[in-house]
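[retry 2/3] Tetratricopeptide repeat protein: previous attempt timed out, resubmitting with same input.
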Amino acid sequence: MPTGQAEDAAALLNRLRSEHAAQEDNALQALLLHECGVLEEKHGEEPSAARDYLAAFNADPQFREPLEALVRILTRRKSIKNLGKLLEALTRASVSPEERARAFWERAAFLQDYEQSLAGAKEALEEAVGASPEDPTPWLELELIAAKDGDLPGRMRAIEARAELATDPTWKAILFIELAELSAKAGDAQRAYDLIDAAAALDGQGRFRSQVTLESIAAREDNPTALARALEGQAQLIEEALEEETRGDASGVPRYARRAEYAADAWLRAAELKRRAGDQEGWVKLLARAAEQLPQSSVIARSRLASLETNGDAKGAAELAKAELERGVAGPGAAALWLRIAEAAMLDNDRDGALGALRSALEADPASIMARALELDLLSDAQDPAALARSLEASGASCPTNEAKARAEIIAAYVWACQAGDSDAAKAALGRAAALGTPAPLLARIARTLASVRGDAAWYEQVTAELVASGAERGEEESLWFELGRSRALRGDSAGAAEAFSQLAAQGGDASAWLGHVLAAYALGAKKLTPGEVVAFRPIAQTIEELAKAETDPDLARGLWVVAALRSVRSGNVDHARARLRELHEASPSDEVVALFLAELERRAGDLTAASTILSACATSTEDIELGAALYLEAALLTWRLGDRQKTIELVEQARGSASKAAAALLAWALRGADPDSLDGRRRALVTAAEAGADPASIAIERFGLEVGQGEAGDRAEALTALETAEAEGSGDITVAAGLARLTWPDAQSDRAAIDRALDRLEDQGDEATAIARAEAYRLARVVDQDPGAAVSRAAAWADAEPKLYAALEWLGAALAAKDREAEVSARRAVGAFLDDEPWSAMDASAALVAMLDQPSTPQPMLAGTSDATRLANLELAMPGCDPRRRAFALKNVSHALGEDAGHDAAALAGWSELAAGNVEAALATFRAAVERRQDDIVSWEGVRAASEALGDHVSTALALAQLGALSRDDTRGAVFWESAGVILLEHTDAHDDAEIAFARAFDRDPSRSIAFDKLFRRVRGRNEDDRLLDIIGRRLDVADDEAEIGKLFWERARVLRKKGDREGALSALENVTMLEPDHVGALALSGEISITMGKFAEAADFLGRLSGIGEAPAQQRLMSGVAAVDIYENKLNAPEKALKVLVGLHEAGLSTPPVRERLARVAAKTGAWSRATAILEQLMQEREKREGRMEAARLAMAIWRDKINEPLKAEGAVVKLLDESPDDGEALDLVLTTSYDAALRQKLLGRAKSVLVQKLSEDPCDADRVERLAKIAQAGQDAALRQATLGCLVSLGRDDDAISTELKRIDGRVATRPQIVLDARAMAEIADPEDHGPIAELFVLMAETVTLALGPTLGSLGVGKKERVDSRGGHPLRVAVAEWMGAVGFEGDFEVYVGGPEPMRVHGVAGEVPSIVIGSGITTPLDAAARSAIARTVFALRRGITSLRTRDEATVASVVIAACNEVDIKVANPGYAVYGEIQRAVHKEISRKIRKSIGEVCQKVVASKQDARAWTHAARRSLDRMAVIAAGDVSIVLSDILNVPRDQLGSVVTENERSRRLLSFVLSPSYLELRKKLGMGVR
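[retry 2/3] Tetratricopeptide repeat protein: success.
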């Protein structure tokens, strides 16, 4: 610093100090001291500045600036000794949220960096964020601490708060992403997805990262849907980056990822996920996107092919395959692509295209089985068999084995032969099959089959011979020789055929021999006929005769002779055949075959006499009677032809014995022919015929005709008898003939009964006979019997049997004559059936009218026809009230018979009849036709409506209603129609605009229509047509009479006016609403809102307050209104009492929420309503979400009970809650300690607080406030031992005062100063520091004497000898005191005590065979706490062999360990300790052989464990401290000795010393008091 500036600063500093000395006001003093500190800090005099800052803060604890300056200086100088207290004071002094946040943040940093107290740091940061939640810095620190502490929920909470505070979209997205990852780790995957979506929605550089993170989370969670979405998002962003670099920068796509390969990979993986999920369409689309990025990628192309094929898009797959082929794909890959093209062609029925593609596939890969199979399948349609055969041959070439190749050749041979018709190619294929090793017999058989199918005789003969030559199977040769003979015979090779048949006969079997001979006889010379050629070959008779001669069987030989005769006849040698047959006939006249054959030949030759003789001879010889009779008759017929009637009769007579009937009939026939002109002859023939069994009726009718036909010569009696016989026995035509005879022969008409029977029989014959019979019966009834009734029925029967006009007219005449209306109707209709057009219509109409007059109650059938007469008659027949279907038919068919207008009316009326009949569709069509003719026909429109409604045709119904509404003159009725039309259109159709028009028409005609108004109102309001809405409301108000509706109308008017900005008008309308309905929620809310906008806060608060008190209002509405009213009362009207009233109302109604209760508590406190405030606070302390909030509410309730109401006992609930949340809360504990709460409750709360305090003090033993609370609890519980321990800690932490010192002395006077119990090994281990263990500790026990000799202290170095030794005799008090401690730690042998040494207040131990204790001359009995502490520590050190640790540093101790190991040949290198050489020499000099031998194993353990000797040294010293404080009872005494600092100054150094902190932690632990109890040194 320049000299001049230094002098000026010094002068200013002196002046400020002078002012400070003269100033009495603390605040001004603090300000002046702060200024001094600022000057000093500015000029680098930080120690002085720190003193002045501290003095300033002490002068005015509310003055924060010097405190902050102190923190700044200590932090910069890394002087953390008092930094924690300063920061704590800084937090207490902070007032504003910003100050509190900064103070707690700095305290958190201190706790984390210097005290390694994550819990404390976290608590401080919670205070910071509670004070200023908008500051992101403490949230960041809180996140870091939570991460270190493994507090995942806390970390997530901090990140979420940071994200909400972030304004930069990229940074916000990154925080969301990190939060999502943590949510996923916590198991809340859905929240992670939501956060990722939120990050992706932000316009920043975190978009791409969000998708990458989503991919990672989805993959871990095995969520394919989210994973696919992530990959799609990545691909989309990469594509955007490729299209426009700036967009990639904006979305955060890394540079390395901006490649088409990355985008394609993402699309490809997303597509695969779609495929697995079954989304075929998505699979195809995403693969297409991938292909856009890498159009040359074969991998993508194959995936696309697979997707298209899976979806059945063969055409798309083919197009893609073609594109791939154009890029030069070859080999099997190309074949696969051609297969896809072929498949598409097959699906399009493109056979040629498919074959071309398959052939291309085979060119690319001849071994492609699929291509070959498809080609064969296509070619199997027989369109190109040659191609099929070639394909089969090619398929064989690719087969791996000769057997398979041969099979392919055989199949190809079949196709060549059977389908292609190419025998040569088939033979070639079979030849190749033979070359491949197919057995020759097998190929020969296959060739025979193919040759047979082909009809190739030469080939067939060739392969048959080959089969014979190659060795046919047993039993097969006969058939082969037969086939050869047959084949040769057919082609005219008789010699060859003879040879083959000779071989066949020579095979040795009887059958084959006989067949050979037969074939030689029959087959030689035969050949196959050409088209149009007649049979050129027949077996010659001579060969058959030769065969017959050779035949030994007489019957078979006779048969062959007959066959030979037959062959002779066929060859034209009939005479030769007749000669052979005569010989056979003569040899055996009874042979019917020979006789018949010969007779036939004689007949053909014209020799009927010989034929008759042969037949009669056979008839005489045969034993078959019936056959003989037949032969006689045939012979008789031949003689009849010869004209020999007598011979014929004789032969017939001979046949009568065997076949009497047939012979008799023939005889009768013969007799008729023999004497046809004689009456007697004819009578004889009839008698003979009758005797022969001829039909009696036929004979009788013939006899009748014969007798009547002869006139007078005939026998009339016989004729009548014959007629009666014919009538009795006859049937069919005979009956008809007999009947006609009866009716026409006068001699037979006298018997009326017989006539009637004749008529009946005649009628039974049907058709014309029936008609004749009925006509005659009618004639008899009308003319003979003159019976009108019978005449009507018989005329009707006649007309039925003979439907002719004349019969119908006779029927009509009979009916009219008999006055039979029913018959007249039928007759008229029968007559009408024979008339045309107008006459028929008239007749039919007259019949219907007569029927109606006859039976007026019975419906008559409607008439068919189009004449006016028919139409009008139908109208008469379908009277009103009849079957509506009849009425509809009649009305619809009136047409213009009554004029055009009347016809239209009738047609319209028909619709109603159809509707009544249930034929709704027809009725609708009728009504529609009517309204098309006359648009204003309101009745027909009503019919359309009724029919449409019945059919459920909503559109038609609505249209009809609309027309009815338009046509109605009465407004009320018209409005009803319009309204109904609108309702139907709205509810049942999509024509809502038309429905609105209908409602508008209805409302225009009658504003009182409620439905029309409501629907129209809602539609208009929905479109925000405010002016029209106001008009509708006004018109409705004119007719409304219901108060509730009027109120709603005024409410709607108010809403619209408010929207239009007419606030006064809106308020006026709302006034009407509230006048009609005082508790109208909406009106009150809107009134409040409008009043606020108009600045009428009192009225607004009143409206909103009233609304909050309405029980029927929605709870949320009441709550919002009440809060708004409270805001106005508090902030605008300064009326907290009214605000309190509203809040109380909400609370009592059960509507209060935590924020409302917060408000209620604050307002109650502001208004002095303490009871209400405490009630709400006690509720809030249970329901606030955060622990800090619950504590704050409980603390405030407790303070009000204590300070405002002065009833601390009623604060019990708040105290309990506060201690539940924070069991060691000082303020609550103070109230418990000072208030007479229930003893059990006090015990419970204080006990729990004690446990929590002990636990927390184990983490931070320098927390003086908590130590003080624990001391108070110990005092309240009369726990003197704990009270002594805590008071000692308070002194150590700088909280010493006269009262504490006095109490400590008093308590120490009550402490047992001498140990009572020997400590066991477990107790000794508990006294030792937790880190004081391991092989090094064992080593020092073994080497205690050596270490003492090497390092000291020794009796000589301490300057004592026999003169200073205390005699063991006499019970010297000091020796006794030492003996007690020696015994307590387990020494059993002798020891020596010396008084002296260089330090009067010190105690030293010297290890040896007889250990020695050197006590300073200033120590006397009775021993005080410091003396007890020193002796106990020294005795414990002797027991552990570590007396030298108090005077030697860590390097020296480590050097001892290394030297000991090296002494037993366990080599350990010196890490560089400067003192090692000296130590090594001293150890080597002093170690005895016994000790060297005993430490070998321990040294090995030391090396193996790699224990740190330096760290163990610190732990061993802490063990000595623990023994010392157990003996002293007051830790401040021990710490003062350790730190060499007066007790009243310990507070400034203890917190900075780790050794001190650890000792305080031990003293405040339960084990400390327990160990004192074990020694018997508890407080009496």
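[retry 2/3] Tetratricopeptide repeat protein: The two ends are 65 Å apart (CA to CA).
[retry 2/3] clearing retry counter.
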